[in-house]
Amino acid sequence: MTPSKSKMTALSAAGPGFMQAPYFETSTSSRRVFIADDSRTALLFKRASEQKAAFVRARQCFLPVARVCMVFFSTRFPALGSTRIKLIATFLLFSFLTGGVPLLVGGGVLYNTFLREAKIRVTQDLNAARQMYDDHAEKMALALRVAAEGTNFHGIFQDSGTEGLGRALRSIAESGPFDLVGLADAGGRVWALSSGLAQNLRSAEKVLPSVEKALKFHRPVRGTMVLPLSDVALMDPALSERARLPLKPAPAEALSRRSLDEVMTLTAAVPLGGTTATPAALFGIKVLNGASAFVGGIRESLFRGTEHDGWNLGTVTIFLGDVRIATNVLEEDGQRALGTKVSPAVARQVLEQGKRWNDRAFVVHDWYITCYEPITDLDGRPVGMLYVGVLEKPYAGVRNKAILLFAALSVLGMSVAIGLGYFLEWKIIAPICRLSDAAAEVSKGNLHPDLGPLEKGEIGVVQKAFASMLEAIRDRETRQRRETESKLVMAQKLSSIGRLAAGVAHEVNNPLTGVLTCGHLLLERDDLDDEAREMLKVIVDATERVRRIVKSLLDFSRQTSLSMEPTDINRVVLDTLPLVENQAAIKGVALRFEPGEGIPPVSMDVQQVKSVLLNLLINALDATDAGGSITVSSRVALSMSREGVKRLGVELSVKDTGCGVPPENLEKIFEPFFSTKEVGKGTGLGLAVAYGIVARHGGVIRVQSQVGKGTEFTIWLPLEEQEAGR
């Protein structure tokens, strides 16, 4: 059964840890890609960090002494206190103190760059080695499945007994990647072995883990299995002798045992079908202890036999626990390092913590760039390790050359320190001092300080940037002053006109009321002829219009107190739009509302804001022809407040597709009595009143217009501090 591509992709995405766990799908063509675990990248700079720390400690001890010496010589020799001498002394001291840092850090960075690439390469090689390791187990499982489906073991047993089964199993073992093939039942009894020694295990009380899982899940099983050496000896004495490896102690370590008493194997098991009463499984074993050909094939595939100074550049090892059981790492006498142990740090991280090791490691007799990962058994427990490594010597040579190069550069740097001090004093310090003095002048309010002659290079760029900053500040000051003056003029104008309008309105309103009352009384008389009645209606209508103008003057001049309350701006719009919907429908103008989302309540006088919005809507209707549209929208926006500070607030926009306002009229549009409408259609006070209401709310009203395209009025009202901070 071959897994689908999507299944294998999911397994690959799960990462190396998942692929090491036992699973029950087999395939000969699928390939899994492991992603390198770069969790130990921080250790790349370990050496350089330690050396740099030592340098820092030395500098901390030396600097106080250097300061005392400089103070002593500056008091005895006043000329030494000049800035030029201080610069030269500082650069010399800096060169001597930091001359070693380029040697260590520069060489280390270059070396670690190569080292990092080598680690990535080794990680990829380990992924490939793991793939070959798993593929071998998959081939075993596939061979057993083919044998199970193509062989009638029940018939062979009935015809020839266990001897016939043994011959069939030997044929399977010889034609497949096995050291041993057997047939066992769920009770642990081994009925036949390719070695012919099944009678040794027929009374066994424990079941092989692979057989147990194959029968439990009724599916093929493959993976790693560790067996006692004594059990292997019962199944095949010759195989157990081959798997017996002597242990070699590490320096200053005493051995508690002389040889391994366990055997690591690759195993596969397939449940048998048929009508047998007792469930049985066909299993195969590949012994990894001493499997030099197995790891040799992996190394040849990865490194193609590449050598460095007579030693293998790349090596591959399989560990049982922390002991090498199959390797092409050689000892100094040229023998394979079988039975030797891995370092405790690697064993602790890989076997105990279940994590990859991807770093330098001392392997037997030399330093290698290595990658280890745990090998887990059928139950997911770490029982060993798979290792791939390359010699560090080729990369160390690159580091040594880099150190020599940086040493030459450091000597060259110290040679030019004195000249550099003079150059910096003349080229840098003087312009910087002028810029510092100019900054002090600006802080005192002088926006035209003397920056001196324009220098070349970076200092000149700084001078230009400083001059540009001053120009921007001057422009901003000028613009803000003009805006303030314009607002003051507008406020004074509105105040003067308001006082005048209030006086005129009060003087006119009383006699006007009398005229209007008399007119209405005369219209109620029955003795008037038609001509007199029509003329009287004209008088009454004209008087009504004058009365509306007087009322507008009173509204404009009256400063009523605001009734502020937190209000949903969208609700204000929804309450106002119905007042003009019929008029818009009659005229054939589309009326749309685009409410913003998440707008917090705004503190406002609802009635006055409604009157402002209604005035803008009526003006938009007057300016828009049939087929046009008016769009009202709301949103939260950051804008410049009346105090000249950017604040968060709510914008309410009324945009029409009408005739637009000529540019020369935009500056006068909020002035009292200014109107672009026909005579008799407006008083020219609506926008002036709206401007005053918005200003009293602490807001801003803006207008944008293009002749023939339309006009957009935008009202911005500030949010309260607590609302703005939400």
TrEMBL record:
Residues 503-721 form the Histidine kinase domain. Keywords: Cell membrane, Kinase, Membrane, Phosphoprotein, Transferase, Transmembrane, Transmembrane helix. GO terms for cellular component: plasma membrane. It catalyses: ATP + protein L-histidine = ADP + protein N-phospho-L-histidine. Residues 426-478 form the HAMP domain. It comes from Desulfacinum infernum. The chain crosses the membrane at residues 61-81, 87-111, 402-424. PANTHER family: SENSOR HISTIDINE KINASE (PTHR43065), TWO-COMPONENT SENSOR PPRA (PTHR43065:SF42). It is a multi-pass membrane protein. GO terms for molecular function: phosphorelay sensor kinase activity. This is histidine kinase. It holds the Pfam family sCache_3_3. It is an enzyme of class 2 (transferase). It is found in: Cell membrane. The lineage of its organism: Bacteria, Pseudomonadati, Thermodesulfobacteriota, Syntrophobacteria, Syntrophobacterales. Its EC number is 2.7.13.3.
